[in-house]
Design a protein that fits this description.
Two copies of one chain form a homodimer. The first copy, chain A, has about 140 residues and is an alpha+beta fold. Helices cover about 30% and strands about 35% of the residues of chain A.
Chain lengths: ~140, ~140
């Protein structure tokens, strides 16, 4: 009888959402790579695959050039698990990456690592944030 | 002559990218609001306007329901300044917001505040991250 009550209590609790957001700022990148929309699109698609995430829709944009340098690229992917975003600034050899993924089946760190290995920045700063609903204070 | 050399040095420096990312986890939201794709789309469009950001493309997705509760919504906007993302989980009265904006003309905090005022969560956790290229250590 006690066990049954406990089960009911668990069922009435709010559903736990696992949400993990990893993101990074990448420095010292190749201008040729970070202006190449096809290369970057493949990189984002590859990262989703490696991280076991599932793309619903992907949007890309190539920006105009700056001071004779080719324009940067933005790619955002709406995924079943949340989103992936990649923005590049070739005039500064710079890019940022966001991988925000919900559910315990996905591996956003592996997706980030995939992008890191493709872009090979000279330096990068890596961050991680809990986007789940179990950490309210 | 010295002055001219200094000018050349400044010109050869890497271009500074101002990038500010504000994001939050919002708790205790209205199921009616966070399942309403039109309301949420207007909320994202309004936040871009308030924050002086410029939408290039907006993607929306309504997810299937869960245990008799209507499905959540994801909205991501590719903007000139980077991106805006809103994800909702009505089964947990929960949503997350990301506003990542580059350039000193935009006001991501005001955009976040706009979403906060529209969704009126019981609680929220707010975060801010520097996504510019001047903070490499």
């Amino acid at each position: 009888m006690i066990k049954q009550t406990r089960t009911r209590e668990v069922q009435s609790q709010i559903r736990k959402i696992l949400g993990k957001h990893v993101y990074g700022n990448m420095y010292g990148l190749s201008e040729a790579q970070i202006t190449n929309i096809d290369f970057l699109t493949k990189t984002v698609l590859g990262s989703a695959k490696v991280g076991n995430m599932h793309i619903i829709e992907l949007v890309t944009k190539k920006f105009p050039g700056y001071n004779g340098i080719e324009g940067g690229v933005s790619i955002i992917a709406l995924i079943e698990e949340s989103h992936i975003a990649l923005h590049t600034w070739p005039e500064s050899s710079y890019a940022t990456v966001d991988i925000y993924s919900c559910g315990d089946h996905s591996r956003p760190e592996l997706a980030y690592k995939h992008i890191l290995e493709r872009l090979t920045p000279k330096k990068h700063k890596f961050f991680s944030a809990d986007r789940g609903n179990m950490t309210v204070s």
